[in-house]
Design a protein that fits this description.
Blueprint: H1 3-19, H2 23-42, H3 55-71, H4 81-84, H5 87-149, H6 155-165, H7 169-178, H8 186-213, H9 218-224, H10 230-237, H11 249-264, E1 267-268, E2 274-275, H12 278-293, E3 295-296, E4 299-300, H13 305-338, H14 341-363, H15 369-379, H16 383-393, H17 399-420
Antiparallel strand pairs: 1-2, 3-4
Helix pairs in contact: 2-3, 2-5, 3-13, 5-6, 5-11, 5-12, 5-13, 5-14, 5-15, 5-17, 6-7, 6-8, 6-14, 7-17, 8-13, 8-14, 8-16, 11-12, 12-17, 14-15, 15-16, 15-17
Length: 424
């Protein structure tokens, strides 16, 4: 047998076994394949800037696109019958993976930032509120101008673009609620899918590039941040408290449980819409509270540092996989129908708030560079960018600024997205 013949035969055998994978095994195979390839690409370093963990999002986008093309449609020419029949189940699994990742990440961030959050918030509360408002309002102003000035641009499409540009699922849901009975309802999802990839990657690159342009002394900037110190604090009281386990898994689980309950509380808004903290805001806030107090009665709420580090990284990875696959399925088809200018409008909705927020924080609020960038990741409601900033800065202390700005930005973007649907 020739070498070429052997290669073809090997590929046929590999294809047979790969395509025979079903259900959860198929999901797990691709989940870990995306992680492996993403980390490889993320290691590529160009003049000190790399995508890092965010490269996993790009790989997931590509997979999401080819999943739709290859296995996404039963009866589609070239579709793999065994996979197409399981597509709805596979999509459900990836959505669960995304939600688990989101909860792991934001809860870890809250517990890490908790011991310094309230002190930091008390000191800089006005700054964080102003910055969160300014970032969202500047993005809303760009959205309004694009809606008014660009021919054939509907408010549904532009608000969808804004929700993607700011990577805000609550804003996306709020816009859908406001336009539920509109004939252009479907355009919200289209705009969100187009703008979301740059909304993730743009902020990730921004928080890495800016310190290099400004030639920041990272050691000095880290010294300006309040030290986290939760583990030193916990070490003095842990022996007197009841610990569920030696790692803090039980305390982490309790934080998630209470956070999800808090996130499910719905607050009515004008116009028949509603607001809730959701699976992002609820666990984040409870993480901050439990991380601050460190105990609940006689129950220790300490979670070990290495466990939080693992949950933070792995949670971000799972979130990026789910978000990328979901966005990739419609990304290319959307651009084919609506043209590349949609991508440009969405990019502007990401870039303008970034620049406006950074300049305001630096020259008006006089925030240190890491507090500045941490606040911007919160104001842009960008979980992946926070992960990138933690990696590039070498400290989790930036999470305090993110957590302080995030709530006001979350509320503002939900209200703004509903208001903008009334334009045109």
């Amino acid at each position: 047998m020739s070498f070429d013949g052997f290669s073809v035969k090997f590929l046929e055998v590999a294809e047979h076994f790969l395509f025979s994978i079903k259900g959860t095994s198929l999901v797990l195979f691709f989940m870990f394949a995306i992680i492996f390839i993403g980390y490889l690409i993320g290691k590529i370093n160009i003049k000190g800037v790399s995508l890092g963990t965010a490269a996993i999002f790009i790989v997931a986008l590509v997979f999401g696109h080819f999943k739709g093309v290859t296995i996404g449609y039963s009866g589609h020419e070239g579709a793999i019958a065994g996979w197409a029949s399981s597509l709805s189940t596979i999509d459900t699994y990836f959505k669960i993976i995304q939600n688990i990742g989101l909860v792991l990440f934001v809860t870890s961030v809250g517990l890490i930032a908790g011991p310094t959050f309230f002190k930091n918030l008390k000191k800089n509360a006005k700054s964080y509120i102003l910055l969160g408002l300014l970032i969202i309002l500047s993005g809303s102003a760009v959205t309004a101008l694009i809606t008014i000035l660009v021919p054939n641009m509907t408010s549904a499409m532009s608000v969808g673009l804004m929700s993607g540009a700011l990577t805000s699922t609550p804003a996306f849901a709020a816009a859908q609620g406001a336009l539920e009975n509109s004939p252009v309802y479907g355009e919200i999802a289209v705009g969100h899918a187009v703008a979301y990839p740059f909304g993730v990657i743009g902020v990730v690159l921004f928080v890495q590039i800016v310190p290099r342009i400004l030639k920041v002394d990272m050691d000095h900037e880290r010294s300006l941040l309040a030290p986290v110190g939760e583990f030193e604090k916990a070490s003095g009281i842990a022996p007197k408290l009841f610990e569920l386990d030696k790692f803090g898994c039980g305390a982490f689980a309790l934080t998630v449980m209470v956070g999800l309950i808090l996130g499910s509380i719905t607050i009515p808004l004008p116009g028949g819409a509603a607001f809730s903290l959701g699976a992002t805001g609820g666990p984040l806030i409870m993480g901050l509270i439990f991380g601050h107090f460190g105990k609940l009665g006689k129950l220790s709420l300490e979670v070990k540092e290495h466990l939080l580090s693992i949950f933070q990284e792995f949670g971000l990875v799972l979130f990026l996989i789910g978000a990328g696959i979901e966005g990739g399925a419609a990304f290319v088809d959307t651009l084919k129908v609506y043209g590349g200018l949609l991508f440009l409008w969405g990019a502007l909705m990401t870039i303008v708030p970034l620049i406006v927020g950074f300049v305001f924080a630096k020259y008006v609020l006089k925030l240190s560079i890491l507090n500045n960038l941490g606040s911007i990741t919160g104001g842009m409601t960008s979980t992946p960018a926070l992960g990138a900033l933690i990696q590039s800065s070498g400290t989790s202390n930036v999470a305090s600024a993110y957590a302080a700005t995030y709530p006001i930005a979350l509320v503002t973007v939900v209200l703004a997205s509903q208001f903008l649907t009334y334009i045109q």
